[in-house]
Amino acid sequence: QTSFYGRFRHFLDIIDPRTLFVTESRLKEAVQLLEDYKHGTLPPGVTNKELWGAQKIKQAIIHPDTNETIFMPFRMSGIISLLLQVVGLLLPNQTLASTVFWQWLNQSHNACVNYANRNATKPSPTSKFIQGYLGAVISAVSIAVGLNVLIQRANKFTPATRLLIQRFVPFPAVASANICNVVLMRHTELEEGIDVLDSNGAIVGSSRIAAKHALLETALTRVVLPMPILVLPPIIMSILEK
């Protein structure tokens, strides 16, 4: 975890779609194995590979703050379901109804993932979740529909140019909505702060500065992560068409 490569490998473990299909009994075995290791009561013959496998399963499925099982579609490993949403967002010649539907579906999934993987050291009312969800959906739909209407009315653009620009509309709509979603759902953390731990994992206090850093970095990732799947395909398609 002290190097970028180490954190990247850890991230790949967290989003491994195979963890979506881990059974309840296998999850209990993994958790028990880690507990045995923690208390020095490991059964003979357990290898490091088995321990790391158990750690991977626990981190991908169990919420670190609540110790509750995260509902399967909203785990970080559920990112595979984004493929369907990306296809829908990038469909050419979309109608108003299809634009609204795919933006709503994408932001509904994002809101649930954000809530399921939230920092739960501070209690947050359900109203905050609803507020964030509505804010994200409204902003995504408004930006996507508004940009499409503006492009259609831009007479100085040729039909080919309009089509090319339209292909990039999903990205600003999704990116801005993702930021809105994170800020609205988690702005309580900015007011109350989040727990800060020392190197031994003991809570030493609550910090609004740490909360600000957490929200800023989370919002930034919500802008950067969609770029490869929402920006590169339109560029590649335009090159192939030429």
TrEMBL record:
Tell me what gene encodes this: Sfxn5
| Classification via InterPro entries | Mtc (IPR004686)
Q: Which family does it belong to?
A: Belongs to the sideroflexin family.
Name its species.
Urocolius indicus (Red-faced mousebird)
What UniProt keywords are attached to this protein's entry? Amino-acid transport, Membrane, Mitochondrion, Transmembrane, Transmembrane helix, Transport
Q: Name one GO molecular function term.
A: citrate transmembrane transporter activity
What superkingdom does the record give? Eukaryota
- Which Gene Ontology BP annotations are present? amino acid transport; mitochondrial transmembrane transport
- Cellular localisation: Mitochondrion membrane
Q: In what way does this protein cross or attach to the membrane?
A: Multi-pass membrane protein
Give the GO cellular component terms, alphabetically: mitochondrial inner membrane
Please report the name of this protein according to its UniProt entry. SFXN5 protein
- Enumerate the transmembrane spans: 82-105, 130-151, 163-184, 223-240
